[in-house]
Design brief:
alpha+beta, 8 strands, Aminopeptidase
Amino acid sequence: MNHVGTKTIETNRLILRRFTEDDAQEIYEGFVNQEDFLYYANKEKRTLQEEIDSLKGIDKKYNNPEYYNWLITLKDNKKIIGAINLNVDNYNESVEFNYAIDDRYQCNGYMTEALEAVKNYCLNEMKVNRIFGGCEINNISSKRVMEKCAFIYEGTLGKHLKLRDGYHDMCLYSIINN
């Protein structure tokens, strides 16, 4: 696996870039305090100061070439609409992706476009063996995103996700780099 760090990725409509402290207000007013994000990420609402502190921590992590965390922005107006990150498993040369999108921008193909770009980055730039991710079994929109990006359904992990209201089954999707 070739570690290249969080480089800017451009698509037809999006720019995936590093987080900065200057993003705090917009992130705070956007997806990180929306109910769907809080539920699926199993988090509580943040204050603006907590968001600022979080971004300071993320900024320091970018010095590590094995850290991958992108903010998703619209190319035409630079509006922040979501985020996507990778958890690296060096031994198996694989990465797990996680993503979130602002409710106001769902159902426009943005997350599919972002995941497709990150998938290509992982396979072509990083040369990973395997890229995978999953979602709560009833999250139909997230399943569709992964399927549109040609991820293969591998199975369901029983009671794998702990959310506010208990444990939930998780559908697992992956692609192997051939």
